[in-house]
Amino acid sequence: MAVKTFKGGAHPPERKERSSGLAILRLREVKLVVVPVNQHFGAPLQPLVKVGDNVKRGQKIADAEGRMTVPVHAPIAGVVKKIEPRTQSNNSEGPCIVIEALPPPAEGQPALAPEELVDFMPPLDPFACSKEEALARVRAAGIVGMGGAGFPAHVKLAPSKPIAVVIANGAECEPFLTIDERSLIERADDVVEGVAITMKIVNAPEGVIAVEENKVHAVPLLEKAIAASPRTRAGMKIRVQLLKTKYPQGGEKMLITAITGKEVPSGGLPMDVGCVVQNIGTLLAMVDAFKEGKPLIERGLTISGGACTKPANVVAPIGTPVADIIAAGLAQVDEEKLGMVIYGGPMMGVAVPNYQIPVQKNTSGVLLLDTVEAKHYDEETCIRCGRCMRACSCRLSPALLAVAVEAGDYKEAEKIGLLDCIECGTCSFVCPSHRHLVQRFRVGKQILRALKQKEAQNAR
Amino acid sequence: MPAKGMLLSSSPHSFTPVSTPRIMLSVLIALVPASAYGVYLYGFSALALILVTMASAAAAEFVFRKLIKASTTVSDFSALVTGLLLALTLPPSTPLWMGALGAVFAIVVAKEFFGGLGANPFNPALIGRAFLLMSFPAAMTTWTLPQGLIVGPDAISSLSLAQGAVDTVTAVTPLGLVKSGKTLADVGTYLGTHSDGELLKQLFLGYHSGSLGESSILLITLGGLFLLGIGVIQWIIPVAVLASTFLFSWVLGMNPVFSLFTGGIAFGAFFMATDYATRPLTPKGQILFGIGIGLITAVIRKFGGFPEGVTYAILIMNIATPFLNKMRVKKYGFVPPVKPAKPSKEAAR
Ligand code: SF4
Ligand code: SF4
After folding, report:
1. What is this structure's pTM?
2. In degrees rounded to 5, what are phi and psi of residue A74?
3. What ipTM is given for this predicted complex?
4. Ligand 1 nearest atom to the CA of residue A384, by list position
């Protein structure tokens, strides 16, 4: 198989060997969950429950009107204890619904019937229902893009342009993370099924499961699953594509370019080049939503890092404080060595003050870095070496872009492509002077967006 | 829960092991063969010149930054690189104090006055060299014969070289001979070779008079290839410089191979034109930058007052760098802007 890739990029140390061989563990006993109300990219939700309410597992607990909204469900059966702002995985505060699990039935009392504990939707056959029904199910199940910003899946799956190929993003290019790799291996059939469901919904003739070369051992399993799938037997075209192990291969734009050779136009969306890209976790959540009627109330994640003495791939209810996963013995941490806690991967993840923060729909991993790994460098002056320019997969000339942003020249910055920056952080990674390039671009993007909004208002 | 404070920086949280000192150190390593050959050709005094120039550069940077109360940057080795680059472009007989003066000028005026590492518009080593060339034209154009190279009295008289007739130590560079109207065959006679091939070979190996570290094309190229191999420099600029020097020398009626094998062009192509701060960052800009250097070098060699023009060629193209940086590659997903249609009266209202 020809191995494809994109131009540019970098090779941060992978560190996947620590957890890539570990089967996914399931966290069973959860006493308490802290469920952020807003876990999607879009308009904010309203809680549908009050303190003191009993909730069933899978019951909708927050929702709102509007296209860019995705409901949130109770991950466990229990009682709503509090609704209050708490620190979330992006290190900012937001409203959270705290649910305490029901205590086990008292002596002599009969256990509660499952109907009183669980509230799933009826199963739905995505290949027999209408597109509208399928999209409604995806929304009702609370599904968002589980690899990135939490973009509403039902919006992504209703493109206004014809789709030629559905890409399952199994690149998993962030160091340390192995949950997608494990899912590809342990749930290959469901990954294929998820691709088929997506193809059905967006009416795409082709599906591609893209994996980086460091996961080449998953390819035979996937190919077997493809061959055995009733969907491919019925004529659906699905294949596996190997990609070079290189960061940011899993970036939506880079993935599309590697596979189709096309570039997503500036300011455009994958659908503009006939693509829909789905995260592996998202595919699995979709399969569960149709097959079992189960909303997105749990997810897989990798717990790793140098201070993590026992790394793990786990499936845990959304809202579980990561500290509880560790307390349950699924993973272990050496407190003495702990220097940094990251939700997400080391390239794009967010550093947070502790690991009490709950798992969210888009938490693909939690890294407990030791004091050696937890580095911070002071910025030195740019030596104009050009490394960032060659590494930027979006060809944005980060060194020059940084000059424009620093000078407050947002016109020039926009011309260079500030808004095209995917914030992958490759430029900052390769910089020998440890320039805070992407860090500047993140702030700069917000300022530029605000400026443009003002301009548009003034023009009106 | 962790009681101590966790590090809360913005992503990425992973960093390349390549650091500025490591880059500078690799440039120093790449220059070792050419430097060693210079010492082999010219002896202990050459070694002294190299060391004094490097030390002066480092000291100048240290003292200047102390005076302006800026952070010390000597540990990034960039001043040592400047010092070594400067020393290797000087005539081997340059007095030590002159080398030191050039180094101080290079560091203080050409580098630190502009804000230090990365902020200087002109190549500091070349500014140092140009400064010495203007201040001490005689010393800077006095060449010595490499140890062991005997230029016979026959050659001297037959070529009627006035200054060399009595003094077999003072020498002429191959470019100097050509500039004074001599042919390639005359250069061969001077160096005691018997054919054009033999002459070019000797030039390539570097056994002739010239700047301390610029004569051996072989060793310079090896150093350059090392830097290319480890990714410290990229191929665009050296290739563009060498190709354009070849082309324009040929167009102007000079022997193109001779042009590449003499003077400081190879050294300039690999070590001076690739200087991070003063070369353009964009690939298109780098191509034009290299072409410009080759063109100006050929023109100076052909028509200028000096036999060699690489120093000025690079400095002149340094001026163009900010403009060449505007020639960016098209960003990912570039969409050409739609020309706004002429506003119709309808729209104007
Ligand atoms: S990598 Fe860093 S030092 Fe090099 S050009 Fe980019 S910003 Fe400057
Ligand atoms: S400029 Fe943006 S897109 Fe380019 S490497 Fe940096 S973060 Fe990535």
Report:
1. 0.92
2. -75, 120
3. 0.88
4. 5
